Input
Amino acid sequence: MDADGLVRDHAGMGRTYGVDGFREVAEVVCDPARALVFEHGWQSWSPAGLYRATAVSPRPSGPLHQTMVYRPERPAPGAGFQGEGLVAVKPEPGAEVRLWSALRPERDVCSIRVKAVADRLIVSADGAVTETSTSRLGYASS
Output
């Protein structure tokens, strides 16, 4: 661990991980009070939803609830959001949506976090992710 509390990746990729195993993958400069965050749940009965970026998504009421409803081995932080394999951010009304998803979900579903810090949202992940925006999403035609 470095003096700044970070663990350096020794695979030669140059990535920096915090002591919790998460690394910053993006910053979204915005007013968090106007931004929305979509958080994807771990399984079909896990909470998933759209929230104000200044809110906190639902958390388990105890250890059994963590095991039965949420991802057991990766509890969410006390503040912010944790999507399992997918999160999306809409910085303000009318803005482009930015989406982060697991790079190879058939192999590994990483946890992706979003937290509000001053005038921005910090996106971090404990695995490889890819970013997509609505300008790069295709739309089905009827």
